[in-house]
Write a structure and sequence with these properties.
This is FAD-binding dehydrogenase. By secondary structure, this protein is an alpha+beta fold. The protein is built from 18 helices and 20 strands.
Length: about 550
């Protein structure tokens, strides 16, 4: 039978676009398949904040941040906690990725036209010892133009290749099986879904109107993770993270269903570390949703008081922005699925950012004037909109009114005003001196020693009950599904492996479907800014390796 292409790529998200662009540049004929309409080209990356992990960058050096490959690798190992036989390839991928982030990554991206916001963010600060989890220094580089600007150069290259006839873009094609001849993967079978004009991210029809069978020398799986499929999230939920929450929000569209992972397994691929996952604890219900259960993550500064559902402060070092999974693990022991931020207007203006391209129109639209407006009084427009319309927000001039609002949101009198007042008053007393035994306030003082945080990210310490800093604000926080950290096991050429460790001929994988490399290069925890970067790195590796194999 004649081949329909040299390589078939399954999934038109960021890693699929990168792999396809690399294959086309090498002169290979590619069919790029996706079950969604053309409007969703770029997948989850389009919706992202565009944060990328870089090491010892010019942006860091301008802010007097001293970073190095050695420090970054120390942080990665302390966060990943590699401890399984299945971590052989993930560790190899992690080593290669950190070297890439400290080496050619920035120059490669700049050659494609990608630029960065000058202030480097500090995500996942850790709060433990030097060898533990977290970034020792700020490394979160926000792309100028956010997620769409990361996607654009690769989407453009793919469209140009399509115009030349090198690439075929086939949307509404859902793969249900990988075909093999003599043990080698040589094609795909699937269903053609009905045409649908659904806008980006919204639910599309699953009506089947036909089937298809395509053959090629190699197949690359770049179909993403499981974050939109809560049944799979709960099925893979690890015991170490406690009981899965009864109610979760989705940080990704519904089509992030994980079904292609099962298709690859049935063809002989090995899926490893499926119990490792990354879900956020600062999710708020989107008052203007695009997909079902649509949640937005707050990217918080360190000053908000973080309380459990009954008003108790979370234990050290579970402060805003320090240890995502440590906080998640604690929440699941409380008997409730939600927590609270209590803060002031002064804090929300300085410290609240919302994750996502659509929640940052100034950065996404590359508006210098809009970004400069963030230095003016008042929170950003999207944050203020959530404060006014978000079902998880309550605003009050005094604590008694705030507590009534908190209990009204949950429908239960879980917060005791007198107990919460004692907690806040004790915290406020600590501000009588520039030193303190309250480790959260110590962390705030430490954060403000970094110029970037002092300028635009961390409010000057103040009493929460100071009327001049008000009004008071409380935000109910929900668990927000996001990323699979495990995936299809791959070697450094992105070749998918069988259970015995040997390559499954003809099959490659990249992006979240491959745990961003190797079947889980993050190990147990992520350092943030490494999901988009993992898609870029593994998509490039898969495209180049598949091009060599099909020469």
């Amino acid at each position: 039978m004649a081949l329909d292409a040299d390589v078939i790529v399954i999934g038109a998200g960021l890693s699929g676009l990168v792999a396809t662009a690399e294959l086309a540049a090498a002169g290979r004929r590619v069919v790029l398949l996706d079950q969604e309409p053309a409007a969703s080209l770029g997948g989850q990356a389009h919706w992202s904040f565009g944060g990328l992990f870089l090491v010892d960058s010019p942006e860091q050096r301008r802010l007097r941040i001293r970073d190095s490959h050695e420090l970054a690798w120390q942080d990665w190992q302390g966060s990943a906690g590699f401890d399984r036989d299945e971590d052989h390839w993930p560790r190899r991928w992690a080593e290669a990725y950190v070297a890439f982030a400290a080496g050619e990554k920035r120059a490669w991206l700049r050659s494609l036209g990608i630029r960065f916001f000058p202030v480097v963010g500090w995500a996942e600060r850790g709060g433990y010892l030097a060898t533990g989890h977290g970034n020792s220094v700020p490394r979160f580089h926000i792309t100028w133009g956010t997620g769409p600007a990361v996607v654009e150069p690769f989407a453009r290259r793919v469209r140009e290749a399509a115009a030349r006839g090198t690439v075929q873009l086939r949307f509404r094609h859902r793969v249900t099986a990988l075909t093999r001849t003599g043990g080698t993967v040589d094609g795909v079978r699937g269903e053609v879904l009905a045409p649908d004009g659904a806008e980006r991210g919204t639910a599309s029809s699953r009506e089947v109107v036909g089937d298809f069978h395509l053959r090629a020398q190699a197949v690359v799986v770049t179909s993403g993770g499981i974050g939109g499929n809560h049944d799979l999230v709960r099925a893979h939920w690890p015991e170490r993270l406690g009981t899965p929450p009864a109610r979760m929000l989705s940080g990704v569209p519904d089509h992030v269903d994980g079904l292609m992972l099962g298709v690859a397994e049935r063809a002989g691929a090995r899926h490893v570390n499926r119990d490792r996952m990354w879900h956020y604890t600062e999710g708020i219900e989107n008052w203007d949703p695009i997909w079902s259960r649509h949640g937005i993550r707050i990217l918080p500064g360190p000053s908000s008081l973080w309380l459990d559902a009954r008003g108790n402060r979370l234990p050290v070092p579970l402060f805003p922005g320090f240890d995502t999974l440590g906080t998640l693990q604690h929440i699941t022991t409380t008997g409730h699925d939600h927590t609270w931020f209590v803060l002031t207007q002064r804090i929300i203006e300085k410290e609240f950012a919302l994750s996502g391209s659509e929640q940052n129109p100034d950065l996404t639209g590359k508006s210098v004037r809009g970004v400069l407006g963030r230095a003016l009084p008042g929170a950003t427009g999207p944050v203020e909109a959530f404060k006014r319309h978000g079902p998880d927000f309550t605003v009050a001039d005094d604590l008694a009114e705030l507590v009534r609002g908190m209990n009204r949101i949950t429908g239960e009198p879980l917060i005791d005003e007198a107990a919460l007042r004692r907690e806040i008053t004790a915290r406020d007393r600590e501000l009588g001196n520039p030193f303190t035994k309250d480790l959260q306030l110590t962390a705030v003082h430490g954060a403000r020693r970094y110029l970037g945080d002092r300028l635009i990210r961390v409010a000057a310490p103040h009493r929460l009950l100071d009327p001049k800093a008000g009004p008071l604000i409380a935000v109910r926080l929900n668990i927000l599904t996001r990323k699979s950290l495990g995936g299809l096991e791959t070697d450094l050429d992105a070749r998918v492996l069988r259970a015995g460790g040997e390559p499954l001929p003809g099959l490659y994988a990249a992006g979240e479907a491959a745990g961003f490399g190797g079947g889980g290069m993050h190990g147990y925890r992520s350092l943030e800014g490494t999901f988009l970067g993992g898609c870029l790195f593994s998509g490039r590796a898969a495209g180049r390796a598949a091009a060599r194999a099909t020469a």
